[in-house]
């Protein structure tokens, strides 16, 4: 009998000890999880604070943050043509150049404001295809600078009468003095028309365009060509 009592006591002792250990460990596990929970709450609060700051910055800066690409405030980047008309199903390309006339088309990332009206083909062509009737904004991004063109799509098969096919982007400070039709080369990449422009202070600008309005080159001269001269 004493032996039996001894075994029972040991078993009971072990059971109580197990319960005590289990009960003691549970609070430790819960306490260890609290720092992780507080860390997650802190991260969430930091994310909310960052988003609030970004939203505030967008409101103060006209809808963009410091990391967003911005329209070129000094107009040093241009899309040519900057206004164009297309018919349903038509596709065409545009060019991009800087204020010095350097062509940057190959470095440009294109996007459209409404993918239901138009879409951009993959490189190397990156042609714009008119998918439905409407108006969309074509955006060109080169590094952090951006420029835009406005394109209107008509039902077709031809453009309505008295519709402007394309307009060349104006260069700040210069006004058109002379249009010289014709030019060098044939085909869609040949020169179809050239512009002579002046800033009124003796600085002259010559620009050459294809038949669909893409600027090919731009040169600065010291004098305006004579009215009877030929390009």
Summarize the helices and strands and which ones pair or pack.
Elements: H1 2-60, E1 70-71, E2 77-80, E3 83-87, E4 91-92, E5 95-98, E6 109-112, E7 118-120, E8 128-130, E9 134-142, E10 145-154, E11 166-167, E12 175-181, E13 193-198, E14 204-209, E15 215-221
Parallel strand pairs: 1-10, 3-10
Antiparallel strand pairs: 2-5, 3-11, 4-8, 6-9, 7-8, 9-10, 12-13, 13-14, 14-15
Q: Can you offer a commentary on this structure?
A:
By secondary structure, the chain is of the alpha+beta class. It is 26% helix and 32% strand. It is built from one helix and 15 strands. Strands 1, 3, 6, 9, 10 and 11 form a six-stranded mixed beta sheet that branches. Strand 9 and strand 10 form a beta hairpin. The longest helix has 59 residues, at 2-60. It starts with a helix and ends in a 10-residue tail after the last strand.
């Amino acid at each position: 009998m004493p032996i039996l009592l001894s075994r029972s006591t040991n078993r009971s002792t072990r059971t109580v000890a197990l319960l005590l250990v289990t009960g003691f460990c549970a609070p430790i596990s819960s306490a260890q999880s609290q720092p992780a929970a507080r860390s997650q709450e802190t991260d969430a609060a930091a994310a909310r604070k960052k988003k609030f700051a970004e939203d505030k910055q967008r409101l103060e800066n006209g809808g963009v943050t410091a990391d967003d690409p911005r329209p070129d405030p000094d107009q040093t980047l241009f899309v040519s043509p900057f206004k164009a008309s297309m018919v349903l199903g038509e596709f065409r390309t545009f060019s991009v150049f800087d204020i010095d006339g350097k062509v940057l088309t190959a470095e440009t990332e294109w996007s459209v404001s409404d993918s239901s009206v138009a879409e951009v083909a993959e490189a190397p062509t990156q042609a714009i295809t008119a998918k439905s009737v409407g108006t969309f904004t074509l955006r060109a991004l080169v590094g952090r600078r951006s420029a835009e063109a406005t394109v209107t799509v008509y039902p077709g098969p031809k453009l309505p009468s008295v519709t402007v096919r394309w307009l060349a982007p104006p260069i700040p400070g210069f006004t058109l003095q002379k249009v010289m039709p014709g030019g060098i080369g044939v085909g869609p990449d040949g020169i179809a028309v050239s512009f002579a422009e002046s800033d009124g202070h003796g600085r002259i600008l010559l620009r050459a365009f294809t038949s669909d309005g893409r600027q090919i080159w731009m040169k600065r001269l010291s004098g305006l060509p004579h009215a009877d001269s030929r390009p």
